[in-house]
Amino acid sequence: MKIGSKIKRLRLARGYTQEELADRCDLSRSFISQLESDKVSPSVETLERVLRVLGTDLKHFFSDEQKKIIFKKNERVPMYELPKGVKIDILMDGIEDKEIDAKIVELEPGSQTEQEDYHDGDEFGYVIEGSVEIYIDGKKYRANEGDCFYYSADCIHYLRNPGKEKAKILWIQTI
């Protein structure tokens, strides 16, 4: 198996030059160049070190499985133990190392999500149906059907449906 082009693709996806990758792996730039052109075969230990810097491991690197692209409606995973009137479905399940978490949130009239404390990441929402109030550090914002919202999650926040109809939101969080 030729691994050089796969390593090069991972390096470029991370935005590293050969020299940057070499520095992070404590290897020479010429070794990285030879590795990417399949002129040398690394030891398992060296390959593991390179792959770790590139954000993967041996198992995933040598896996022939195509990453899942389509997530069917019937594959959604419901969340449990939510406040009354709140329904949340996880849209993409079973993905390792994902950087976003996408959900469909449904709020019955008068219901609200649990208050979340400060955490890393960002949050984005698109109001599919109805309207919601977004509370961020005690300040209220309103988004109606077709509107979207975005904020850094380093605040206390939650959503509430002030309307008389169900609200439905596509909610995406970076992890």
Automatic annotation (TrEMBL):
The keyword DNA-binding applies. SUPFAM superfamilies: lambda repressor-like DNA-binding domains, RmlC-like cupins. GO terms for cellular component: cytosol. Residues 7-61 form the HTH cro/C1-type domain. The keyword Nucleotide-binding does not apply. GO terms for molecular function: DNA binding; DNA-binding transcription factor activity. Keywords: DNA-binding. PANTHER family: HTH-TYPE TRANSCRIPTIONAL REGULATOR, TRANSCRIPTIONAL REGULATOR. This is Cupin 2 conserved barrel domain protein.
